[in-house]
Design brief:
Six copies of one chain form a homohexamer.
Chain A: H1 14-27, H2 34-39, H3 43-57, H4 64-77, H5 81-93, H6 98-120
Helix pairs in contact in A: 1-3, 4-5, 4-6
Chain lengths: 132, 132, 132, 132, 132, 132
């Protein structure tokens, strides 16, 4: 289940419920994912994490779908099963089509390959790419 | 420099030159990056890698800028200095603004954080996220 | 189960039994974990690994609980499910409270986030942090 | 230097200065590290990151030194050069002795080794370690 | 199962069947692994990936068994459960004995340990190891 | 240089010198690498690490060159610059030709790519690959 188990809405403190309510309202869903129920044992972390995500994933110069694609790319590279499952679903919810999914995975795979080829060949950074 | 050094255009075989030419034509640049010059010692790998990248990074259901952002996300997660430098430059070349860059980094950072929180709390995948 | 299966105590060679006995005596437990039973197919590796762990995890300038917390931090960052499960249990056995667990996870999550922000922004090391 | 360069105190907006001031006051130092100057181009991220770190790294059930040791363990496992340099210095500032440093590195090394042995031998989690 | 499910031979397009046939012929097996059935939803990726693997894993200066051992080493370091399971089986199919498996795992474990010790001690590269 | 600096032979204790001597004798070289000089501040770790490596890297069912190739594969996947530089040199010393190096890098790159594709497509392990 999870190391400390889940905090269910019915058993939650008002502080935790307020965060759960905001998650459900913001995301227009009627339940919160296991992740939130697992970390709710630490209300300060729950609040901080949710507020950070809410701020970061909001529409900005990058649209929410693009942000979810990036989230999936990180999760795949980190090999986080839970995160891949939940953010793939979230990306679909934001409009990711099957074709987008396939292209996303192709880019992730290729990037992981060339990342290691660059490293393995010990390639020095080109002058024009250096920050100064 | 690089483990085997660089293959410069002047010294390249016709086979390698053909790839270098295609890279420069496709990308509308007048030189190839160190990465290509480093792996050109292995012409089959050079050709295969370039053709794969050319196919994968072409416009599709995802536009080239989005693909570059994903490339950067993988490279940062893998901590590949060369790749971060070159793909950050490539993303800028495709229209990434400073604001987009900042949002990209914020998402990458957050994703890496929650990836580990999920893992550390040993959170089980929600039923509705499971593939079947 | 495990690639080569498990070596159970009853079937073990004297050499393997001696290590199993030392593990149980040192840790004051009456069975050895699957990890030890899995690598016992390679007695030299079993002995070397156990003796290294015994030496490294013994009380020193860092107490055993702190060492287990560090072990968990590495295991989470590496996304090793088995290791997270077993070392979280070991840390509890050494006195980790729920509150400590929560703070541990918060630090791990934050460290993973800022590690990637530093990398993504390509931040140069401050002069005063450099080794010389 | 850094992708977007550094925001120096003299050139900073009041919003950024307020964070820089709080960092210097909280840590009792008279300058901020490059990391903060690099991300200050994104004031919302600067503020959020600093407030999160301030909350997480404060004394709690785990003391500040232990938290820094955990930070180093994550940074080494992630191979983040900047982070290793800065958090090793921070840990020293909080009382890490040379002996503690050596034991820390030994545990990190061992944990990384056994993480991979467990994975490579495909060891199944012991029943008693499973969450339920 | 897999995000998009599997493409079974009976339901596959001629393009996908051609790749499946080539996999089965080349490997002298009568079915394709789940990996290929999962990515077959993207025929271009299926073809590109198979042709790359076929080229790379063919006998060369390194024999096929050595290549499989390297594949396992990467997969363990990346903690990819599927890949460890399938490439351990493939390595056995190419002649990996139990003794080779044990030595392989010992090297992988040790390499992961010293990789982190080098990093944690911030060791500078010896002059004679630098590329120039 | 390194966090604690280097222990040079002339300044080393008899205990450390004995290990340094054994390294030089075993490897038929007249100096020890920076790695050993960096960890020599912790004589117990120096001794344990050297003895483990000596045991693991000795000829066995796998020959020393194959073991070095595996070491490089892990180091590249972990993105450890020092380790890539030193073990690439060690592999050459054991007979790795340029052609072997290129094939090694191609396999490492491909393995990293497919590791992530498997993960991203959430592919379930085939029945016949499962341990039981």
């Amino acid at each position: 289940m999870a190391t400390l188990g889940f905090v269910e809405y019915e058993d939650a403190s008002p502080e935790v419920r307020a965060v759960f309510d905001d998650i459900m309202t913001t995301r227009k869903v009627d339940r919160v994912n296991n992740f939130w129920k697992a970390i709710a044992h630490d209300p300060a972390t729950l609040k901080r994490t949710w507020e950070s995500i809410k701020q970061i994933m909001a529409p900005g110069a990058l649209d929410p779908l693009t942000k979810e694609l990036i989230y999936v790319a990180v999760s795949v590279t980190n090999n986080c099963g839970y995160c891949i499952a939940s953010h793939t679903a979230a990306a679909r919810g934001r409009g990711m089509t099957d074709q987008m999914f396939k292209e996303l995975q192709a880019v992730i795979g290729m990037a992981n390959e060339t990342n290691k080829m660059v490293t393995g060949y010990q390639v020095e950074i080109d002058e024009q790419f250096k920050t100064r």
